Amino acid sequence: MDWCICSLLWSFIPLCLLIHVLCFIFGDADLTLLRASITGHSPETKLKGLVVWVTGASSGIGEELAYQLARCGSRLILSARREDQLNRVKSQCLENSSLKDEDILVLPLDLLDRKSHEEKAKAVIEYFGHIDILINNGGRSQRSLCLETCVEVYQALMELNFLGTVSLTKQVLPHMTQRGRGSIVTVSSVVGLAGAPLATGYSASKHALQGFFNSLRTELTDFPDILISMVCPGPVQSQIVDNAFTEELNKPVATVGSQEHKMTTSRCVRLMLVGIANGVKEMWIAQQPFLLFYYAWQYAPTVAWAMTNLLGRKRVQNFKAGLDADSAYFTKPKTS
């Protein structure tokens, strides 16, 4: 009998390893997040009725967050600079969910106007009574070479992506510590974990967010019911490239390529909500080969440097040739 049990256990181990390998090869998120998506709590159950504040809610990931949270039954605060676009998103939320008009507050917000953040947080608490979840999603990306980029661009990236997020968080966090519960979820990036060409300033701002919130999490050990969660997506279909900084502050991106090779926004957001519902502290969300890149940086940095140099050189070459930098990873440039 003991021999049979040992045999079963020994056969079970390679089976588990095989399942994990298959999940890694065909998965689009880290194993912890994938496991939560299969065996964990559903967002529809855990997020229903919660008050969720989403910044950057006028487009891209933030817009999709609003739609999926509305379908989960969450009450929403939608923030971004463009009030007309926020009203459009609100209308879509109301049309496709059971929420009522009073369940969604449109609250225009400029992350750069840090003096207004205290007033905005007070307005939210006055309207809903409390804040369950803050999703820091606002920010801008970058597409320019370091040697060609003016210092003002780097300053703008840090002011917006890092200090703006920190400022709003500091207005919401005391409310959560007073209640003893809540979640602060911040959208970082794969370049918040590793560097990438054409994004020196953007990567620096995301690294700063990673350092800040990872440190903050350790300061909140006396508040076990406050979740600090970092979301690190790879390439996702959104308007982030359209609005990216270039080498000069007001110069638009010259070439925005096809988005079809990137992960769909809906899938990325679904995984985010699964992570939030299950208290995942850091989420890696990307299709292969980018998911391999996350694990390489975590467990085999020497290999990761080799991958970075190889892919980075190709990215810079395509950028200099006037091609879309992101699609260069997936498609072979056409030659005349």
From TrEMBL:
SUPFAM superfamilies: NAD(P)-binding Rossmann-fold domains (SSF51735)
UniProt name for this protein: Dehydrogenase/reductase (SDR family) member 7
UniProt cross-references to InterPro entries, sorted A to Z: NAD(P)-bd_dom_sf, Sc_DH/Rdtase_CS, SDR_fam, SDR_family_member_7
Organism: Fundulus heteroclitus
A Pfam family this chain is assigned to: adh_short
Similarity section: Belongs to the short-chain dehydrogenases/reductases (SDR) family.
Top-level division of the source organism's lineage: Eukaryota
Keywords from the UniProt entry: Oxidoreductase
Entry GO MF terms: oxidoreductase activity
